[in-house]
Design goal:
Elements (H helix, E strand, L loop, with lengths): L4 E5 L3 H12 L3 E5 L8 H4 L6 H15 L4 E4 L10 H7 L4 E4 L5 E2 L15 E3 H10 L17 E4 L2 H21 L6 H6 L1 H7 L4 H4 L5 E3 L17 H22 L2 E3 L2 E9 L2 E13 L2 E4 L5 E4 L3 E4 L2 E2 L8 E2 L2 E2 L15 E3 L2 H4 L26 H23 L9 H18 L5 H8 L4 H5 L4
Parallel strand pairs: 1-2, 1-4, 2-3, 4-18, 6-14, 7-8, 7-14, 8-9
Antiparallel strand pairs: 5-15, 10-11, 11-12, 11-13, 16-17
Helix pairs in contact: 1-3, 1-12, 5-6
C-alpha cells in the first residue's frame, strides 16, 4: 500500500471513479462532499422520474466509495466549511482533486434580471432540486411555484426537462380537480396518451401550457449524438434533432417558439411579469437578430435554463467561467503543482450526460435518438466520463510528490476524523447511506421499481 493520500472534493460520477481508481492502486483517498450523500446531480439534477437509472448509478457510487481505502466526509463544502489554500498547503495531502461539478446557473443575459430571482424568475438548478425533493415529508428547502403559462428560456435537454416538470405539475393539478388521480410516472409515459384515454384536452382542463423560447430552431438543439464534422453530417444531425424534439413535444404538449432571444424584462409591482423578445433568423448558418421585431410576452413565471457553471472557490483561479488549468491532458489547476480538476468542474457543463474529455474540450452530449432510448444513452454517458477520469488518474500519478511521512499521515487522518465527527458520520459508509437516503416518491405512491 502506498503512503500517498488524495483529497477529492465531490463524490458523484467523476469523484467516485477517481477515488476507486486511486484505491485500486493502493492509495488512500478522502472524498469530501457538500451534501450528506455523494450523488450530486444524479440525486438532485436528474428528474425524479428516472427511478431505475438513479438507483443503478447510485449503487455504483456506493460500491466505489465503500472501498476500505476510501474515507467519506459528508457536509463539507470547499471554500465554505474548509479553506482551499489551507487544504492544499497545510493539510498534507499528496494531491487535491476538484470534482465538485457545475451547480451555478449561467445568468440570464438581461441587465438587472437577477434582482428578480424568486420574484417571477427562477433558475433551473434550484428549481429541479426542489422538484426532486419537495415530496419528502421533512423537506424544508425553498418552495417553487409552478403556474400555468410559464416561460422557459433554453434550448437543450435540461430545458426540455423543465418543460416536462411544468406540464406534469399543471396537468396533474387540473386532473385532480376533475377527480382524476394520475401519478407522475404515468404522465411521464405520455401526457397526450393520458388525456386521450380520459377523452380530455388541455383546453378542457383550462391549461395553456408552458412555452419554451429558443434562439435557434428545433433542428439546431444539441440533442443528437451524431457527428457534425461535415455539411452532410450536420444535415443528418439536424433531422435527428428535430425528430427528438417533436417526440418530446407530441408527448408532453408544451408550446415552442423558435428563433427568439430575450432582450429585456417586464417589471410590475416589484415582480418580473414577462420578457421582451426579439426575433432572430438564420442566414448562411449564422444567427442574426431581426431589427424592429421586439414584442412583449407577459407571464407569471420565467425559468432560465441556459447552462450551468462551476461555482467559484476562493483561491482557485478562474478562466472566465471555468477553473483555469495548465495541462489539457490531466487538468492541473494553474499555479498549483498538485491540484487537478475533473469532470464538470473543468468543462462548466452542468448536464450530467456530458462527458468531460480533458482540458477545455467539451464533448458532445450523448443522447438517444428518441426519448424511450434516453436512459440507456445517459448511462453510456456516465461510463464515458468514468473512462475519461480513469485516464486522468493515470496521468495525475506522475505528478504526485514524495510519499507522506508517518507524522504527515497522522495529521491528515486527524483532520478527516474531526470533520467526520462534526458531521455525525461514524465511518460506516453504507450505514450512513441507509440513514440519509431521502424518501422516494415511488415508495410513497406505491409504484413498482
Amino acid at each position: 500500500m502506498s503512503d500517498h493520500y488524495i483529497a477529492i472534493f465531490g463524490g458523484a460520477v467523476s469523484g467516485s471513479e477517481a477515488a476507486w481508481q486511486f484505491a485500486q492502486k493502493g492509495i488512500r483517498v478522502a472524498v469530501f462532499d457538500q451534501n450528506p450523500l455523494p450523488y450530486g446531480k444524479i440525486e438532485d439534477g436528474l428528474p425524479k422520474w428516472h427511478v431505475k437509472l438513479r438507483d443503478k448509478e447510485e449503487e455504483k457510487i456506493n460500491e466505489k466509495l465503500s472501498h476500505p481505502l476510501v474515507q467519506f466526509i459528508p457536509n463539507v463544502q470547499l471554500g465554505k466549511n474548509v479553506d482551499f489554500q489551507e487544504v492544499v498547503r497545510e493539510w498534507g495531502f499528496s494531491a487535491v482533486l476538484l470534482a465538485n461539478g457545475a451547480w451555478r446557473d449561467r445568468p440570464l443575459p438581461i441587465e438587472g434580471a437577477d434582482d428578480f430571482e424568486g420574484k417571477g424568475l427562477y433558475y433551473q438548478n434550484p428549481f429541479i432540486y426542489w422538484y426532486n425533493h419537495y415530496h419528502e415529508p421533512n423537506f424544508s428547502g425553498q418552495h417553487f411555484d409552478t403556474p400555468d403559462n410559464a416561460i422557459i428560456i433554453g434550448g437543450g435537454l435540461a430545458s426540455l426537462d423543465v418543460a416536462k416538470v411544468l406540464m406534469f405539475e399543471n396537468v396533474q393539478r387540473a386532473l385532480k380537480a376533475r377527480g382524476h388521480e394520475v401519478d407522475l410516472f404515468t404522465l411521464d409515459r405520455s401526457i397526450a396518451k393520458v388525456l386521450e384515454d380520459l377523452n380530455l384536452t388541455l383546453d378542457d382542463l383550462g391549461v395553456k401550457g408552458c412555452t419554451l423560447y429558443y434562439r435557434r430552431r428545433a433542428m439546431d438543439m444539441p440533442l443528437s449524438s451524431s457527428p457534425t464534422d461535415t455539411p452532410e453530417q450536420v444535415a443528418k444531425a439536424q433531422i435527428t434533432n428535430e425528430k427528438i424534439f417533436n417526440n418530446y413535444q407530441s408527448k408532453y404538449l408544451f408550446n415552442f417558439e423558435p428563433l427568439h432571444v430575450p432582450v429585456d424584462k417586464i417589471v410590475e409591482n416589484g415582480q418580473m411579469a414577462g420578457l421582451i423578445f426579439r426575433r432572430t433568423e438564420m442566414q448562411n448558418g449564422r444567427l442574426k437578430e431581426v431589427a424592429g421585431s421586439d414584442y412583449e410576452v407577459r407571464s407569471p413565471l420565467v425559468i432560465s435554463s441556459i447552462g450551468s457553471l462551476p461555482s467559484p472557490i476562493p483561491g482557485v483561479p478562474m478562466d472566465g467561467t471555468i477553473y483555469e488549468i495548465t495541462e489539457q491532458t490531466c487538468c492541473r489547476v494553474k499555479g498549483f503543482n498538485t491540484v487537478f480538476a475533473l469532470g464538470n468542474a473543468v468543462t462548466g457543463r452542468g448536464n450530467i450526460i456530458e462527458s468531460a474529455r480533458h482540458g477545455r474540450q467539451v464533448s458532445q452530449a450523448i443522447i438517444g435518438q428518441m426519448e424511450q432510448g434516453r436512459e440507456k444513452d445517459i448511462e453510456t454517458g456516465f461510463r464515458n466520463r468514468e473512462d475519461v477520469v480513469a485516464g486522468q488518474v493515470n496521468q495525475i500519478l506522475d505528478f504526485l510528490p514524495e510519499e507522506l511521512t508517518p507524522e504527515a499521515m497522522t495529521k491528515v487522518n486527524h483532520k478527516i476524523s474531526h470533520l467526520q465527527q462534526a458531521a455525525g458520520y461514524g465511518g460506516n459508509f453504507m450505514e450512513w447511506v441507509e440513514k440519509q437516503l431521502p424518501v422516494r416518491l415511488e415508495d410513497m405512491i406505491g409504484v413498482k421499481h
